[in-house]
Amino acid sequence: MKKIYIRVVVFALFVFASGLLSCKKNFLGATTITNLNQSTVFADSTNTAAFLANIYSNIAVSEAANSMGNGGLDAAGDEGAPGTLLPSQATYWASGIINAANVTDNIYSTCYTQIRAVNQLLANISKTKLTLPDNQPGSRAQMKAEARFLRAWYYAILIKHYGGVPLVGNNIYNYTDPIPVQRATYAACVSYITSECDSAAMVLPYTQAGPNYGRASGGACQALKARVLLYAASPLFNGTTLVADAGGSIDASIVGYPVADPQRWVLAKNAAYAVLRSGSYALNVDSSNKSRPGLGFVGLFCERSNPEYILQVMYSDIDYGHQLEAFWDPPSRGGANGAQPYQEVVDLFPMIDGKDTLTSAYKYNSQNPYANRDPRLGYTIIHDQTVLPVRLNPPNRTPVNIYLTKNADGSVTNTVGADAVTFGTTTGYYINKMLDTNACSTDITQRTRRCQPLMRYAEVLLNYAEAYNESKGTDSAYVVLKALRARAGIQAGADGMYGLAVGMGQTQMRTAIQLERRLELAYEGFRFWDVRRWKIAGTEENKLFHGMMVLHSGSAVTYNVFAILPQHSFSARMYLWPLPQQEIGKSKDLVQNPGY
């Protein structure tokens, strides 16, 4: 079998497009196929494989760097500002004006379209001429297991957005059928997703390699299960008070578990530990250059295959170098419209010894603010004078000029081009996370073979540390945090603690884990959901954020923090997304989330 790529054969795109056209009436509308009908598709093994490949095509629908129009989820929360000032999904969330009428239906419609495609495949794959043994990739058994994992994946996306959603089982509905759209309880959705993961994991190989790299695996099934159970154990859902907090009459069991149960943390811990115990994954570590600590961290995002990736978005040869760079690179390197990091994110990165700027042995200098910091800062954030490749000239690497010039008369002018504050970025920063160190946007001579991670081992480690701390103690959590900090290039220190405090209790460790999660997983699509499941978004996303203005006056350089208006606004209803109004309008049985 060939690799699963986003770019699929023409017929699969046609099938998918036909499905979208038929969904104008209802998200579960029948797929319209003309000369290429179901019999034709599933009678041929190549066509069937391509049909499955197309179900993979939207697995990053929630994490896409442009999912909000002028940024991704990172532009809708406390990680960054939208890439432009134009109204968008990002500005609706940041300003608190999101509602059922202006929220995108992309998540809802895309997930259910692909869930329906899974059900079509499962219902028809018995007609496909497949002769491979069940234990080989490309066999009927493994294709069915991949499809079941993908169905669980899309349901997991739905419940983190909306809470409980309609569960359609294996049914494929046509226009003439009465379509049940009553929302299942959150508990029922969690149970369904985890059981599907368990069933698929029994069939799939634990890891995929060679021509099958990028397909669903047993490890991906277990990692998804661990993630879903972690969310289920978290304060937003475990003993939910959302209905009372946001207002409304919806049954609380739809948006979470009405009664908290600490045992849910144990389930989450055990599920994450199953991945760790397998020994199939590891942190990507590179200590080859002592003068450049943290190479394992930055290097993993440039490698197509590494020991840390569990599930990733695969791109074809034609697409190399034209995804993240296109949005996150500065304008001088061909980027545009990506989220732009806030100063608050920069300030969170500790010094190189792992201590904060007040307690570190390295003296923090506000006029040289990026010196002696956690190496992940430079690998995550592009700031003034970050060195990047030059477009159309691969060997050359030059600093990015994100500064303004202060003249002798006190006036300020932009003399350095499109990258500076108020011209290219509203915050003084660009995102560097996951960008290939040798690639530039839209430059065919500087492509990358990178693929984008959706689940990686570092996340599973952090999931385990969090669940362990909430259910058992702090010892294993210490092991995880030290491992991540060591890989990041933070100094161990005389005590071997990598800047971590000794003897932390549960509350202190919780704070440490939340910080480490924010640093390690920044701009990978996690923070928007973490502040919600922890129920801290009311504090973290209801504030005024800041940027950095760099001024050059002759040889003197000054750094000035400035406020970015308007202030973000968050209300309790925003812990969940509203169901799109057009879906609510189709049936009286589909109830809206509280506060909308």
UniProtKB/TrEMBL annotation:
Q: Where is the RagB/SusD domain?
A: 316-596
Gene Ontology annotations for the cellular component aspect, listed alphabetically: cell outer membrane
Main subcellular location of this protein, as a coarse class: membrane
Instruction: Extract the InterPro entries matched here.
Output: SusD-like_N (IPR033985), SusD_RagB_dom (IPR012944), TPR-like_helical_dom_sf (IPR011990)
Query: What UniProt keywords are attached to this protein's entry?
Result: Cell outer membrane, Membrane, Signal
Q: Pinpoint the SusD-like N-terminal domain residues.
A: 47-230
Could you tell me the superkingdom of the organism this chain comes from? Bacteria
Is Signal there in the keyword field?
Answer: yes
Q: Where in the cell is it found?
A: Cell outer membrane
Q: Which family does it belong to?
A: Belongs to the SusD family.
Q: What is this protein called?
A: Starch-binding associating with outer membrane
- Organism equals Mucilaginibacter mallensis
